[in-house]
Amino acid sequence: MKRTSIEIKKKIISFLKKDPLTYAQLERKVNTGFRTIKQNCEELKIFGFIEIEKIQSHPKNGKPSYKIKITEKGKEQNFK
Predict the structure, then answer these.
(1) Residue 52 burial (C-beta neighbours within 10 Å; 0-12, 13-18, 19+)
(2) Is residue 70 within 8 Å of 49, Cβ to Cβ?
(3) 21 — phi, psi (to 5°)?
(4) Residues 21-73 pLDDT 10s
(5) Which of 59, 65, 63 is nearest to 34 (CA)?
(6) What are the beta bridge partners of residue 53?
(7) Runs of H (alpha helix) within 1-80
(8) What is the CATH architecture of 5-74?
Protein backbone atom coordinates (compact mmCIF):
# COMPACT_ATOMS: atom_id res chain seq x y z
CA MET A 1 0.00 0.00 0.00
CA LYS A 2 1.33 3.41 -0.97
CA ARG A 3 2.20 5.75 1.88
CA THR A 4 0.99 9.33 1.90
CA SER A 5 3.32 12.30 1.74
CA ILE A 6 2.51 13.24 5.34
CA GLU A 7 3.42 9.74 6.56
CA ILE A 8 6.80 10.02 4.84
CA LYS A 9 7.38 13.49 6.33
CA LYS A 10 6.54 12.16 9.81
CA LYS A 11 9.12 9.38 9.41
CA ILE A 12 11.76 11.84 8.16
CA ILE A 13 11.17 14.13 11.17
CA SER A 14 11.25 11.20 13.62
CA PHE A 15 14.60 9.93 12.29
CA LEU A 16 16.10 13.43 12.24
CA LYS A 17 15.13 13.98 15.89
CA LYS A 18 17.77 11.34 16.75
CA ASP A 19 20.65 12.42 14.44
CA PRO A 20 21.39 14.51 11.34
CA LEU A 21 21.35 12.27 8.24
CA THR A 22 22.14 12.40 4.54
CA TYR A 23 19.57 11.88 1.76
CA ALA A 24 20.92 8.35 1.22
CA GLN A 25 20.65 7.45 4.90
CA LEU A 26 17.07 8.75 5.03
CA GLU A 27 16.27 6.84 1.85
CA ARG A 28 17.29 3.56 3.53
CA LYS A 29 15.68 4.30 6.92
CA VAL A 30 12.33 5.49 5.49
CA ASN A 31 12.45 2.76 2.82
CA THR A 32 11.54 4.94 -0.14
CA GLY A 33 13.22 6.43 -3.22
CA PHE A 34 15.75 9.25 -3.40
CA ARG A 35 13.43 11.62 -5.29
CA THR A 36 10.68 11.12 -2.71
CA ILE A 37 13.09 11.86 0.15
CA LYS A 38 14.52 14.93 -1.58
CA GLN A 39 11.09 16.34 -2.47
CA ASN A 40 9.73 15.84 1.05
CA CYS A 41 12.87 17.35 2.59
CA GLU A 42 12.53 20.41 0.34
CA GLU A 43 8.94 20.86 1.55
CA LEU A 44 9.95 20.45 5.20
CA LYS A 45 12.69 23.03 4.63
CA ILE A 46 10.16 25.55 3.27
CA PHE A 47 8.14 25.21 6.49
CA GLY A 48 11.29 25.65 8.58
CA PHE A 49 11.28 22.14 10.11
CA ILE A 50 14.69 21.13 8.74
CA GLU A 51 17.93 22.62 7.36
CA ILE A 52 19.79 21.16 4.40
CA GLU A 53 23.55 21.74 4.51
CA LYS A 54 25.72 21.08 1.46
CA ILE A 55 29.01 19.36 2.20
CA GLN A 56 31.47 20.04 -0.62
CA SER A 57 33.45 16.84 -0.16
CA HIS A 58 32.07 13.76 1.59
CA PRO A 59 34.75 12.22 3.87
CA LYS A 60 34.30 8.70 2.46
CA ASN A 61 33.99 9.25 -1.30
CA GLY A 62 35.01 12.88 -1.91
CA LYS A 63 31.75 13.73 -3.71
CA PRO A 64 29.40 16.55 -2.70
CA SER A 65 26.81 15.47 -0.15
CA TYR A 66 23.96 16.94 1.89
CA LYS A 67 23.41 16.73 5.64
CA ILE A 68 19.82 17.19 6.81
CA LYS A 69 19.32 18.54 10.32
CA ILE A 70 16.15 19.20 12.28
CA THR A 71 15.49 22.76 13.48
CA GLU A 72 14.07 23.81 16.84
CA LYS A 73 10.72 24.35 15.11
CA GLY A 74 10.91 20.81 13.75
CA LYS A 75 11.72 19.37 17.20
CA GLU A 76 8.59 21.03 18.57
CA GLN A 77 6.36 19.20 16.09
CA ASN A 78 4.55 16.32 17.71
CA PHE A 79 3.91 14.12 14.68
CA LYS A 80 2.32 10.79 15.57
Answers:
(1) middle
(2) yes
(3) -135, 165
(4) 999 999 999 999 999 999 999 999 999 999 999 988 777 778 888 999 999 99
(5) 65
(6) 67
(7) 5-16, 23-30, 34-46, 72-76
(8) Orthogonal Bundle (1.10)
Which residues, listed in sequence order, are joined to residue 50 by a DSSP beta bridge? 70
Number of H helices, E strands in the chain: 4, 3
Question: In terms of C-beta density within 10 A (0-12 exposed, 13-18 middle, 19 or more buried), how is residue 10 classed?
Answer: middle
Q: How far apart are CA 44 and CA 50, in angstroms?
A: 6
- C-alpha distances out from residue 23 to 15, 39, 61, 72, 80, Å: 12, 10, 15, 20, 22
